[in-house]
Every structure is written in C-alpha cells, then in structure tokens.
C-alpha cells in the first residue's frame, strides 16, 4: 500500500516535488536552447499538485486548443507524462526552431508537426533524464504520441487511465523564450507506488 497520501501532502514533500520540477524544467530549457542554437531564458517554474479536473483551467480552460505530447512511463517509475502547449505557443516554438513565420491561425505543415514532436521528445527526455539522475531510478518512456485538440479532451486520457488509482497530477508550468513568451506545461502522473519510490530515493 502506498505511504503517500496525495490529499495530505506536507510542506517537505511539496518542497521536494518543487525541486524536482525546477531541475527538470531547467534541464529541458537547456536542451531546447541547444536544439535551436540560441539562448533561451526561463522564468521560475510554478509547481503544483492538482486534481485532474483543475488542470485544464490552469492551461486556459477546457476548450483551449492545445498540442499534447503524451508518454507512458515504465521501469522503476510507472505512469504517464505529458508536455502541453497552447497552439499559439506551439507556432512560436516551431518558428524558433525552423526559422519560419507561421501565424497563430495557420495550419501546421507536416514539417512543423515533425518538429513539434521532436521538440516534445527532447524536452520530455531532458526532464525525465534529470528525474532519473536525481533519484537514481530507471525511467523508460514510450514513443511519444502527439495530438491536437481542446485541453479538456486531451487531459481526459490520463484522467480515465489513472482516475482509478488517484486523481492528482504534478503540474510544472514553465515560461521560456524571449521575455518568457512561451508557456509550456509538464504534467507528471506517476502511479502512487511510484511516488513512494521517488520520495524514498530522496530520503523522504
């Protein structure tokens, strides 16, 4: 049985989860900087443990159009991870990488979609790598699955999958780019037993 009660997470546990979020977001920003060969500034990430039903509101509402890149996790840590961007931010990110000037209302080309998936893969990989190094746990991610839809629809996938074992996710909101122009959301949903492993590995 899990020792972690996500309905009653104390300040020490929350501090550890915030530190995990800070380090992961920092490494992901570094990876993105290397990918586009330009410096990217990152604001202080906002880290919260939220119920699934509240996630969409943080991202702008259930009907906000987003790109979601979903990974399943296995190894020492089981669960799901998602990297999510509003469509307007996804356009900015693609333009940064490809040097284009597609507008918010423009359709994504096949090349844009491929670039977005690669961006998500690298950012999520950097995040998971830092978590693995920090905890000394083996974390294996699946091939990414990318979709574009309203935030509520995309977030219903992990909610249905993990609603039977818990209803909370760790949300790391990172602002990066010129003048923090892009907001990216990491959503980490380990199974309860995996929360135990993560916290135990850090001596909590």
What can you see in these coordinates?
The protein is α+β, with helices and mostly antiparallel strands. It is 46% helix and 25% strand. The protein has helices at 11-36, 52-59, 87-98, 110-135, 151-162, 192-201, and strands spanning 46-51, 65-75, 79-86, 139-141, 145-150, 168-176, 182-190. Strand 6 (168-176) and strand 7 (182-190) form a beta hairpin. The chain is globular, with a radius of gyration of 16 Å.
List keywords for this structure.
single chain, 204 residues, alpha+beta, Chemotaxis protein chec, 7-stranded antiparallel beta sheet, 6 helices, 7 strands, 46% helix, 25% strand, globular
Briefly note the CATH topology name: Chemotaxis protein chec
- Global morphology: globular
In CATH terms, the superfamily is CheC-like
User: CATH architecture, please?
Assistant: 3-Layer(aba) Sandwich
Number of domains: 1
Biggest sheet character: 7 strands, antiparallel
Strand content: 25-35%
What's the number of helices? 6
Low-confidence stretches: none
Q: Give the integer mean of the pLDDT values.
A: 80
Q: What is the helix fraction of residues, given as a range?
A: 40-55%
Distance between the termini: 17 Å
Regarding CATH, which class? Alpha Beta
Number of strands: 7
* Cα Rg: 16 Å
Question: How does the SSE layout of this entry go?
Answer:
Elements: H1 11-36, E1 46-51, H2 52-59, E2 65-75, E3 79-86, H3 87-98, H4 110-135, E4 139-141, E5 145-150, H5 151-162, E6 168-176, E7 182-190, H6 192-201
Antiparallel strand pairs: 1-6, 2-3, 2-4, 2-5, 3-7, 6-7
Summarize the structure.
The chain contains 6 helices and 7 strands.
